[in-house]
Specification:
Length: 303
């Protein structure tokens, strides 16, 4: 596909009324030609399908299946996600890419570009597409959603790395309170885009993470200094870090989460957080320690 050609986008279940939402060009200068379609034509003349958020989820899922099974099967599909909807049904689908609707038009352009074949190559000839942003992102979402009960957060990493760089040029915190403040600052710096239903339950979210960051103030790392050292290495020496946090709901009740923060390889400006509830394990460990202490106390009394 020559760089001078126009990329044709077929938008279904969507409206072009809010033009600021839709990019006009790609980073390489190619023009984007949008067409909103009420139904799928028998012989579509599009390079990328964009599946919007208008209408019932049931109807949109049916349209997705039609796009996947009818007509040219090599046309990639970019699914738009509404942060106020349950995302599980979408992220279990084998779409070529996802884009959260509150994200920028520039990021949408980047994702569209990643779905296109490289110049002078057909899609089936391009063996490097597996490292593209959209396919890499899809693989991560698909794999992680197979983990039962896993909460998922995703966001843009550029602001995280800006804060991380500033912290490198300052002294590391010397108190637990300042360690907690900086740990929360790193989480708050991420431009969050999306959370799934499990993350909403685990973090007791009242709004999607793209709208409200109050959950960060209810999170406390169990081993703050270790987490901070790992977080400062993220994207430099490490591609992922793992830690354990205590999270309190709005009533003050606590539960424990295993938190993995990852920078997916070959994925530009993306950060992925996986949450697993480890409250039962923590309670069992505490009960075991209490029981051992009880037995030791009985032994001392017998001596």
């Amino acid at each position: 596909m020559p760089l001078t050609s126009c990329i044709r986008l077929g938008l279904v279940h969507g409206s072009l009324a809010a033009r600021s939402k839709w990019p006009n060009t790609l980073d390489n200068g190619q023009q984007l030609e949008w067409e909103a379609l009420d139904k799928i034509p028998e012989h579509p003349n599009v390079d990328v399908w964009i599946l919007g958020t208008n209408g019932l989820i049931k109807d949109r899922l049916e349209t997705f299946q039609l796009l996947r099974t009818q007509g040219p099967l090599d046309i990639p599909i970019l699914v738009l996600l509404n942060p106020r909807e349950e995302q599980g049904p979408w992220l279990s689908m084998r779409a070529d890419g996802f884009h959260e609707t509150s994200s920028s038009a520039a990021l949408m352009a980047q994702r569209i570009q990643s779905l296109l074949p490289l110049p002078e190559k057909r899609p089936h000839q391009n063996h490097n597409l597996g490292s593209s942003l959209a396919m890499e992102e899809s693989d991560h979402w698909q794999a992680t959603f197979n983990a039962t009960g896993a909460g998922i957060l995703t966001g843009r990493a550029d602001s995280f790395f800006q804060v991380q760089t500033r912290l490198f040029n300052s002294e590391m915190p010397s108190t637990m309170e300042s360690t907690l403040d900086i740990s929360r600052l790193l989480f708050r710096s991420i431009r969050w885009e999306l959370n799934n239903a499990s993350a909403q339950d685990l973090l007791n979210l009242r709004n999607p993470v793209s709208i409200d960051l109050e959950f960060v103030d209810r999170m406390t790392p169990l081993h703050g200094p270790e987490f901070l050292l790992d977080a400062m290495s993220l994207g430099r020496d490490k591609t992922q870090v793992e830690s354990e946090w205590i999270v309190r709901d709005h009533d003050g009740n606590a539960h424990y989460l295993h938190v993995q923060v990852a920078i997916p390889r070959n994925l530009q400006d993306c950060i992925l957080v996986t949450l697993l509830d480890i409250s039962k394990r923590i309670r069992l460990e505490q009960e075991l320690r209490d029981h051992i202490q009880y037995l030791e106390e009985k032994v001392r009394k017998r001596q």
